[in-house]
């Protein structure tokens, strides 16, 4: 692992000040309420334009997805150009490399061109990724990603199960996520990686318990609760949830227990999403560290998710109360 660069207290001061100004332009609760009150997509899109969103000509939820992708990619590129430690931003970009890997691996197996689903927010440009895949030049990808794509292709060819290929890529993603967090030198980000790993494992275990599927293949390393303990603990709901007692996931365990008893996943998913967002949002105040950058990335992701929820509701003619119930608190909201 490369040596972590020693940074001064003032290295993040300039970008932190810029982020403070950018945060004022985020789509917050008040503007989301105005969009809901507008009652139809066209009027809601005009409200988004007030915050600088380039939504002219958008006529569907599918077209809006392109706007989200472009917005995320532009913000990551801007942060990458100014953040002193590139690993800090790459830790959040790497997720989209693995999204693209899933699109290409499963698309190739099914004979489908999924190029329109590729994200430009990753470290590897979509066109470069697509070309490497089409011309069998995967070795040009980052090493961990290259190895994971090769393994996922083999697993899918052998089993015919796209979900198992996803598991391979998910484990590799978290491995790179952890490595980049270490390279960033940020203890705050390292804790977020552990929290995210525990959240992913808790979600996987609940789904496996509900569906009767094998749990082992979907578990990832890096959380506070160990994978081996999780596998043994799923024999009873009480034993399993006890593994998360005293961890940052403690606040969502009651909702998780309800899922074990047969409740829908929606309330649990909302609580765990809000817990992750709240952790990121807690970093806003320290201008002399990397934390505002991390908090801003979390706020952007929450903003995009919130706008998607509202606009999907408007395109689908859902009630405003139902849409509100699906919004997550934290970050930009």
Brief account:
With 333 residues, the chain is mainly α. It is 66% helix and 0% strand. It has a domain at 86-184.
The rough form would be described as globular
Structural class: mainly alpha
DSSP E strands, number: 0
Rg over C-alpha atoms, rounded to the nearest angstrom: 20 Å
Question: SSE string, helix = H, strand = E?
Answer: HHHHHHHHHHHHHHH
Tally of individual helices: 15
Query: Beta-strand level of the residues, as a percent range?
Result: under 5%
Termini distance? 37 Å
Poorly predicted parts: none
Tell me the major beta sheet: none
Mean pLDDT, rounded to whole units? 90
| Portion in helices | 55-70%
Description:
By secondary structure, this protein is an all-alpha fold. The protein has a domain of 99 residues. It is 66% helix and 0% strand. Helix 2 packs antiparallel against helix 3. The two termini are 37 Å apart. The mean pLDDT is 90.
Task: Label this structure with key terms.
single chain; mainly alpha; 333 residues
């Amino acid at each position: 692992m490369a040596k972590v660069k020693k940074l001064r207290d003032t290295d993040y001061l300039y970008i932190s000040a810029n982020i403070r100004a950018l945060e004022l332009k985020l789509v917050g609760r008040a503007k989301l309420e105005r969009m809901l009150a507008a009652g139809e997509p066209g009027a809601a899109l005009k409200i988004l334009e007030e915050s600088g969103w380039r939504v002219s000509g958008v006529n569907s939820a599918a077209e809006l997805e392109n706007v989200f992708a472009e917005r995320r990619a532009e913000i990551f590129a801007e942060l990458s150009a100014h953040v002193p430690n590139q690993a800090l931003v790459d830790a959040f970009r790497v997720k989209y490399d693995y999204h693209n890997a899933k699109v290409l691996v499963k698309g190739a197996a099914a004979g489908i061109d999924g190029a329109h689903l590729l994200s430009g927010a990753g470290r590897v440009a979509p066109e470069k990724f697509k070309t490497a895949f089409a011309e069998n030049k995967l070795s040009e990808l980052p090493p961990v990603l290259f190895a994971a794509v090769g393994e996922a292709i083999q697993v899918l060819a052998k089993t015919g199960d796209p979900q198992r290929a996803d598991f391979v890529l998910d484990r590799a993603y978290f491995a790179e996520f952890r490595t980049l967090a270490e390279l960033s030198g940020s203890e705050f980000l390292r804790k977020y990686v552990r929290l995210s790993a525990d959240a992913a494992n808790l979600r996987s275990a609940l789904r496996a318990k509900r569906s009767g599927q094998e749990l082992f293949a979907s578990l990832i390393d890096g959380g506070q609760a160990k994978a081996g303990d999780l596998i043994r603990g799923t024999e009873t709901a009480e034993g399993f949830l006890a593994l998360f007692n005293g961890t940052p996931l403690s606040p969502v365990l009651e909702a998780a227990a309800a899922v074990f008893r047969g409740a829908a996943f929606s309330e649990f998913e909302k609580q765990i999403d809000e817990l992750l967002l709240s952790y990121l949002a807690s970093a806003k105040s320290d201008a002399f560290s990397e934390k505002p950058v991390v908090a801003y990335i979390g706020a952007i992701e929450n903003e995009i998710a919130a706008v998607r929820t509202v606009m999907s509701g408007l395109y689908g003619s859902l009630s405003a109360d139902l849409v509100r119930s699906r919004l997550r608190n934290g970050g930009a909201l």
